[in-house]
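Exam review. A common question shows you a sequence with its structure tokens and asks you to describe the fold in words. Practice with the pair below. Do the first one on your own.
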Amino acid sequence: MERLSDAAVRAFARHETFHPRYGWFRKAVQAASHAAVGDDPFLADDATVELGVGKNMVRAIKFWGRAAKLIGEAPNSVRPRMPLPVPTPRGSALFDDKQGLDPFMELPGTQWLIHWWMLQPVTELPVWWLTFNRFTAVEFSEDELVNFVIDEIDRSGWDRPNESSLKKDVSCLLRMYCSSASDRSTIDDLLDCPMRELGLIEPAWGERHRYRFLLGGKPTLPDLVLLFTCLDWMSGQSATSKTVSLNRLATGIGSPGKSFRLTEADLAVSLGRCAGAVPGVQLSQAAGAPTLGCVGGLQQTAASALLEYYRVNGREPGSGISLSAATVSGVEPEVLEGARPAERARKADVLAELDDINESMKAKADAR
């Protein structure tokens, strides 16, 4: 999806000015898991006590859980106009208290996954999507980024929101990925945002209030997680094609190269190291251009890559957790009704294959 209106919902400054903190994604999933019939746990009188934060932070935790696609909504039979928060399959797979693969975000791959999922359509973070996919400057100021976002929103056909809302989003984004985005940052702000460890943005040397993207290979980005994101992106580009050039993976809108600030050479090195670890993945040359190909189903192979990453790190899905194509793609029956026709058809096709995929994945896990 190359248009902002297709890739994102029109939502601004819903984070209450708080970037996500360590533990917030887990808290969002846990709160949604324990929702009583008819009641939203984030609106409960004791929500601040249960989550251990202030009232505004409760709303921020819910927002970031939704933005990362770790919690979704289910119909509320008691209060039909107030949908209930529920964990998505991926939220349960990662953060389930007893069976989650990485409930305390101890593995760097989990942080990269959440960054990837936050940017994937349909995202609730349009400013983030524009920054990583459309903004071409390497070094920039906060004002330059704000002005760019305003211009892009005007071109998109959306009504322009208040400039103060856009400034809050840009400020939050910079504090989220860069440890020195504000002179007023507290020690708490500097230490506890997991996205800063990705190494995507840093202060520009010798200049106040300027920043720069860090281009090139990322030491903490696991090869298998990168492979997963490549296959995941490919599955959203075409219903039939199972090959893509590394150039497109590096430069295409919404691609891993854009989201992770990687070059074609970076992709070649990382994918070359892990392609043989997942059956059906091929790295080859087509007309002189390096190409990634997949013999089997893209989402199923993507799920296999992700399962292999957690397996080699000593994490296996619990008996009640399925790391399947449904989990990694975020496909849920509840979202079909509101999806656009083409997207609804694609998701329906995936859902039709889920039973076979789940059985295949479970058989492979048991064999190991």
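Now try the second one, then compare your answer with the model answer below.
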Amino acid sequence: MARLRKTSAALIGVAALALAIPAAPAQAANPIEKPAAVCIEPGSDSDAQARGAQRTYGDDHRDVSPRQQRAIERRTDAILKNKGVSEKRAGSATATIPTYIHVMLDKDGNGDVTRRQVVRQIAVLNNTFAGGESDQAANTGFTFDLVDVDRYYNNAWHNDHASTKYRSLTREGGADALNIWLVDFKYLGVATFPWDYERNGDVDGIRVHYDSLPGGSITNYNLGETATHEAGHWLGLFHTFQGGCTEENDGVADTPAQSSPTFGCPEGRDSCALPGLDPIENYMDYSFDSCYTEFSTGQSDRMSTMFTAYRS
């Protein structure tokens, strides 16, 4: 078994990192984990430059059936009713999200990211969730406050092996805290949904390929917007192609239905007979980072509702 070492750095404001004394993480029980929302693979080529050439489905991609989708909506409505929160109030909620970044390196230090990359990644999250990339984008009202960055030296964890164990040992904060694990695996990103927190809170958060951060080496996916996509799942969004060419599709009225994921940035793509072009610029599609520009107003409302129900 590889040796485990941890170093920790607390963020002062958002510009400076202060080193802390290395410490081993506390032990925690391993939960029984539901499948996560697995998004995309950078590709199978070992060359980091080639891995961004295409996105394909993950082997353990979690599909949510229309029946399950309706059950989630009923559960959400019941929770809000029990909390005495109206739909309008829930849909307008905003929050500052404490954010913890865990850098999972191998024993030789491979997989590290710079302080500048971390700061830029948080800036990307704040800009994209504020609607800063398009006049048509919604300002979701969510901001991300970087609380801590720590580093673990463990070959297995670096490659996302024993992920239930390492997440349960290293996760910080409560239901409202976003934990981001930076790993080297075949996906660009993996996320848990908010409605799974009650049962699997110890592993709640998102896993992101470390080379997808700003300045990383995965071509077309190195502007930091994989984290935006996965944080969207963490706040309760489905892919825009959820359900295919159906009226129900992703449960958001202002994202046109699409039959399948987008690869690249094919302007004018229209894969469904239903109204509207495919929302290729939406963060919840699979487009290139450079193609992404927005969350819709309906998605913003849904994230607020899900945060109110499951994370507040």
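Model answer, second protein: The beta strands are 5-12, 16-19, 37-41, 56-57, 95-105, 142-153, 178-183, 189-191, 206-209. Residues 84-306 form a domain with the Collagenase (Catalytic Domain) fold (CATH 3.40.390.10). Full marks require stating both points clearly.
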